[in-house]
Amino acid sequence: MGREWVTDGVPGLVYLGRDAGDLRVGAAHLGQGVKLPGAADLLRACKQRGLAVVLASSADEPEFNALRGALDAEDAIDAATFAGDVESSKPAPDLIQVALERVGMLAEEAVFTGDTVWDVRACQKARVPCIGLLSGGISGDELTAAGAAEVYPGPADLLAALPGSLLGRHDAGQPDRSAS
């Protein structure tokens, strides 16, 4: 497995690959089957780059399963964790730490994407850089003030900027641990 990427998207999903990123599908979309534009494509692009992809969500199990199904990216997902796996949810770092453990990664090998201030704060506590996404309705200024290293309008925008993003730069600068 390659380096990791953490994302907190489908209400709290974390994807780990060589870097981290966050993709969120709001709970309001649960019954409507609406997908967040670019979310599945971003996960697949990260997987193709050799990243491990882990979903970590503060949703309960039924909501998490529904959101994961709506994401429709099982082919790109290596592991998952949700609220039932931890004592405390965000802004506590528990979900991020469990996500890292599930793929055997260290915090310095990951990058997280999140779309709430709670995501960014949880990342800071876990010592994982966070890319902010505006898909959660939080302003870029609020995400930056909370500590987001970069901010993009949504997953599709991060995908378009992937090579030059923190996620892409982190990926390119890390040795591949899969051979060790």
Can you put this structure into words, describing what you see?
By secondary structure, the protein is of the alpha/beta class. It has a single domain (7-14, 21-173), classed as HAD superfamily/HAD-like (Rossmann fold, 3-Layer(aba) Sandwich). It has seven helices and eight strands, in the order E-E-E-H-E-H-E-H-E-H-E-H-E-H-H. The strands form two sheets. Strands 5-4-1-6-7-8 form a six-stranded parallel sheet. A two-stranded antiparallel sheet has the order 2-3. Helix 4 (117-126) links the parallel strand 6 and strand 7. The radius of gyration is 14 Å and the shape is globular. The N and C termini lie close together (10 Å). Residues 1-34 and 173-180 have low confidence and may be disordered.
Helical content class: 25-40%
Strands of the widest sheet, in order across it, are 5-4-1-6-7-8
CATH class: Alpha Beta
Distance between the termini: 10 Å
Tell me the CATH topology.
Rossmann fold
The residue ranges in which pLDDT falls below 50 over 5 or more consecutive positions are 1-34, 173-180
Question: Based on the structure given, which CATH architecture is correct?
Answer: 3-Layer(aba) Sandwich
